[in-house]
Design goal:
2 strands, single chain, mainly alpha, about 250 residues, two-stranded antiparallel sheet, Arc Repressor Mutant, subunit A, 2 domains, 10 helices, about 70% helix
Length: about 250
């Protein structure tokens, strides 16, 4: 989706802050300077600054100017903040925080999905699983379908708060799935675990669904820990997801 001028300006400034271009404790350039540098109106700059204040990245005032706040003030439940951090690269501590969050959120969501999922929800999750299976067997885009699978489970919980969490978890899931695709037969090995989750939801078996998703999450966590131990660079999200080769 192409963003409007306001959205693009917020993205530009947000990424610049998260990347350290505008350091913590420092000030953003004055409004006229930003207008000239970005080629936008004062109204766009002012509205963009308001958006960044709402996300906790900056503070404004007559005595402080427009100052960049420390990371612990940033709204880490804001999908934009997560995306900007992911584009910069996910540090080890941040990735582990997100993984812990996933282990708390997804099992609860899947238990609810096993009792609340509609027939349409199940059809969408099955379609995502079919896409994953097709990519494993014939090559292609595995990661997009894997994301749809997990997002479908969260939607099937029929809990608005949990559905919103899918936006926060998206960066972690994308990174985790890219790591798993680097492993020989990683996607193929996880396919049966995904099937176990789906079958438990279809069977309306919440306890079995919870155990199945925990097993899947812990397997992904082990993959990430192994990559972290090798000190290899983690995937960034500023490029298309890699595709599985044709076998």
């Amino acid at each position: 989706m192409i963003k409007n001028v306001h959205g693009s300006t917020v993205d530009f400034l947000g990424e610049a802050i998260v990347s350290g271009h505008y350091p913590v404790g420092g000030n953003l350039p004055a409004e006229p300077v930003l207008c000239e540098e970005l080629g936008v109106s004062r109204t766009v700059v002012r509205e963009s600054v308001k958006s960044l204040v709402a996300k906790g990245l900056i503070i404004t005032g007559p005595k402080v100017g427009t100052r960049v706040l420390p990371e612990d003030h940033w709204n880490w439940f804001d999908p934009d903040v997560i995306t900007w951090q992911a584009k910069k690269g996910l540090p080890t501590e941040f990735l582990r925080d997100l993984q812990d969050l996933r282990r708390v959120v997804e099992p609860a969501a899947v238990k609810l999905a096993a009792t609340r999922a509609s027939a349409q929800d199940i059809l969408e999750i099955e379609a995502a699983y079919a896409g994953m299976k097709r990519a494993v067997e014939h090559g292609g885009d595995y990661i997009t379908y894997d994301l749809r699978f997990h997002q479908g489970l969260l939607r099937a919980s029929r809990n608005r708060m949990l559905v919103q969490m899918s936006k926060v978890l998206n960066a972690l899931l994308r990174t985790s799935f890219e790591i798993s695709t680097r492993k020989i037969d990683g996607p193929a090995q996880s396919l049966s675990m995904h099937r176990a989750v789906l079958d438990a939801v279809i069977d309306r078996a919440p306890e079995r669904a919870e155990k199945a998703i925990v097993k899947l999450i812990d397997s992904a966590y082990l993959d990430i820990e192994q990559v972290l131990a090798t000190r290899r660079r983690l995937p960034q999200l500023g490029r298309p997801a890699p595709e599985l080769p044709v076998h």
